Amino acid sequence: MDSGTRTTRIVTAWRGATATVLVWTLIGMGLDPAGRPAVAAPAQSAAVRALLGAHQWLNGPALRPQDVQGKVVLVNFWTFSCINCLRMLPYVRTWAAEYKDRGLVVVGVQTPEFAFEKDARNISAAVADLGVLYPIAVDNDFGIWRAFRNDAWPALYFIGRDGVIRRHVVGEGQYEESERLIQQLLTEADGLRAANVTSHTNATGPEAPADTRDLDSPETYIGYAQASGFDSQQSVRANAPKLYSPAATLSLNHWALSGLWTIGNEFAALTGARGGITYRFHARDVHLVLANPTPAQPIRFRVTIDGAPPGPSHGADVDADGRGVLKEDRLYQLIRQSGPIIDRTVEIEFLDPGVNAYSFTFG
């Protein structure tokens, strides 16, 4: 049996649903997709094959092996309600635009932390709102995450034209070093030297860098599985409604509920008509991850800081009077202080029922 016959039979057997498998089968036989002897190309790693096998893609069709073969590829693991991911995002967007014409392929891998981050509508809305234009692989089952042996959000993987992962960066920072590596890898790929400069990035709102010089409050989860610092007068009753009231005073990085809430594994749900959350913090910024199970019915909320409207210290998602509206499931910036950073108390009062509150983050 000659090569042409083998190719015809493979095409007939796999036509339609498994084009990616077909291409890799042919390459493994020493043939290109047309059945001709293939030119030797760098082998793709199991991690990249898992990436190309994602079941759902946003911002265009699924990437194919030929879309990344011999290219410099940057893979960004993120999830859209993660403050660290949001603060890295301006750099990834900038690199994607700056080096697209040089052949850089940027791929976002949306791997969820919370259940609402698996919803295709939520992911699509976040990608659009955040101005992400490069391909996004939806990784709800953590298959790509495991293939890369990833263990944190956000993370960057820099892959050379030879298909080898050259660098792995976890968390925020190292942006200048990362961009210079992109330039180096592109020079290896096309032989053209990049300008000896790095891109300017102007980030605003939650995407702006944290003020790490005066940041003494950690990420704090509200669901009982990972909660810490809970300081209501009543103990937690898991998965059942209970009326809570805050302690008379809160220590730094302690928080409390007021009103009728049901505290679940991932989040606390406001069961009563009105309720609130109070947190004693030390940071410039306060963020809270919130979800609305009935988006057709927006949830109003009001934020105070030390009992007063935030005024010029309001965050991007509230006005100077502290008023905001919960519509989308995402991270909300409540406070961005404009004055000295001291221990302060923020209170979020929800004026309508139904909110799911997940976690506080600070910056």
> What is the first-to-last residue Cα distance?
66 Å
Low-pLDDT segments, ≥5 res: 1-41
CATH topology of the largest domain: Glutaredoxin
The helix content, as a percent range, equals 10-25%
**Major sheet description:** 10 strands, antiparallel
Helix run count: 8
Count of structural domains: 3
CATH class identity of the largest domain: Alpha Beta
* The CATH H-level homologous superfamily of the largest domain: Glutaredoxin
Count the E strands.
Answer: 16
- What gyration radius follows from the Cα positions, in whole Å? 24 Å
Structural class: alpha+beta
H and E string: HHHEHEHEHEHEEHEEEEEEEEEE
Strand content of the residues, in percent?
25-35%
Large-scale geometry:
elongated
Which architecture of the largest domain would the CATH scheme give at its second level?
3-Layer(aba) Sandwich
Task: Give an overview in words.
This protein has 363 residues and is of the alpha+beta class. It is built from 8 helices and 16 strands. Strands 7, 8, 9, 10, 11, 12, 13, 14, 15 and 16 form a 10-stranded antiparallel β-sheet that branches. Strands 1-4-3-2-5-6 form a 6-stranded mixed β-sheet, covered by helices on one side. The radius of gyration is 24 Å and the shape is elongated. The termini are far apart.
